[in-house]
């Protein structure tokens, strides 16, 4: 199952607080790690790429969803 646009706009990949915003912004909840793991496994096996590329793509999707939500 994919993530909804709302989940992408309101969650983070790790659930950790950003070092740039410690004490300034509230920490966002983590995306479901089981679903993220399933996506990583599927994409890395199907396309024979490194997990770091998948993580980067998820991070970009999160940033794009946040930008769309602000509009």
Automatic annotation (TrEMBL):
Pfam family name, one: BEN
Ranges where the BEN domain occurs: 1-69
Matching SMART domains: BEN
Name this protein carries in UniProt: BEN domain-containing protein
Domain of life, source organism: Eukaryota
Gene3D superfamilies assigned to the protein according to its UniProt record, in alphabetical order: BEN domain
């Amino acid at each position: 199952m994919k993530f909804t646009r709302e989940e992408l706009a309101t969650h983070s990949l790790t659930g950790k607080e950003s070092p740039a915003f410690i004490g300034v912004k509230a920490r966002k909840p983590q995306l479901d790690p089981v679903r993220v793991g399933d996506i990583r496994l599927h994409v890395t096996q199907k396309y024979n790429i490194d997990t770091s590329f998948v993580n980067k793509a998820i991070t970009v999707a999160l940033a794009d969803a946040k930008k769309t939500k602000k509009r």
